[in-house]
Predict the structure.
Amino acid sequence: MKTLEQLMKNTPTDVVERSRQTNAEVIKPPQIVNKRGVKTVVFVVRCKAVTEKYFYDVIIELYPTEISKGVFLRPSLKSPAWVQCSCPFYLFNCEWTLAKAGSSEIKYSNGQPPRTTNPDQIPYLCKHLYKASPAVVKEAIKAGTKDERFDFV
Ligand SMILES: [Zn+2]
C-alpha cells in the first residue's frame, strides 16, 4: 500500500495542473471501519472541476502507522492510503495500477492493465484524488485536535 505522498509525487504534472481547477468537499464525518481485517478511517468526498458538469465520488481511507492507547496518531500525507474515484480518467489511467499497488481495488474498469494510457504502470492519482488528499489529511488533523480523535480500541 502506498502513502498519499507517494501517489501525489507520482502524479503527472498536467494532472496536478488540472487539479487547481477542482473543488473537493468532505461530505460526511470520517468513519472508522474494519476493512480487510484492519481498522481504517474512511473519508467520503465530492469532487468537481469548474469545467465539469457532474460531481464525482471519491473515497480515501487512511491507515494508521502509529497507534497509541487506541488513538490514530499523526495522520498525514505519509499515512498509507486506499483510494477510489468514479471519474473516467481514474478508470482508464489509475485504477489498475493503484489496485496492483494495494491502494485500491478493481471496481470501475474491466481489470485490464492500462497499456496505452499508463504504459509504465505507475500508480498515481486523478485530479480529484490529488485535490482531495490534502483536504482529507486536514480534516483528519482537525478531528485529532478537537478531541474527536479516531478511537481504534
Ligand atoms: Zn477522479
Remarks:
- The helical segments are 4-10, 13-19, 88-100, 127-145.
- Residues 56, 85, 87, 89-90, 126, 128-129 surround zinc ion (CB under 6 Å).
- The beta strands are 22-26, 31-35, 38-49, 56-62, 67-68, 71-72, 81-85.
- The chain has a mean pLDDT of 91.
